[in-house]
């Protein structure tokens, strides 16, 4: 299944999301979520599930991201045991395991959202 894009979020929902974000979003990510409120499918051999903006804060709280990997904010996963997270300070994207989640386990993927997508396409 190729990467399937969700419809764009309603403007009200987008504004609520942006008002709650108190950190650096990856360059290109806001453009993506304005056009597609999440996505799921394959980028070549990599599976990608980007969460909807309505689910982001709830899922980050549910996974206790701030406790186990402070300074990160998960935006999706590989559909398995790896999350994809934003470094709140720099906006860079990292792969972090759900089990054993910690800052020291974070693996840098890209400095921005477009580079992240390209990194997954090439994986």
TrEMBL record:
Residues 20-118 form the Knr4/Smi1-like domain. Gene3D superfamilies: SMI1/KNR4-like. Pfam families: SMI1_KNR4. This is Cell wall assembly protein. It comes from Chryseolinea soli.
């Amino acid at each position: 299944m190729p990467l399937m894009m969700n419809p764009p979020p309603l403007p009200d929902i987008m504004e609520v999301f942006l008002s709650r974000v108190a950190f650096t979003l990856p360059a290109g990510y806001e453009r993506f979520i304005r056009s597609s409120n999440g996505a799921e499918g394959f980028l070549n051999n990599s599976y990608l599930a980007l969460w909807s903006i309505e689910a982001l804060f709830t899922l980050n709280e549910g996974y206790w991201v701030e406790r186990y990997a402070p300074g990160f904010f998960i935006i999706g996963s590989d559909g398995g045991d790896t999350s994809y997270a934003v470094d709140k300070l720099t906006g860079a994207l990292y792969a972090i395991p759900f089990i054993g989640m910690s800052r020291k386990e974070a693996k840098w993927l890209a400095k921005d959202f477009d580079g992240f997508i390209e990194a997954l396409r090439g994986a």
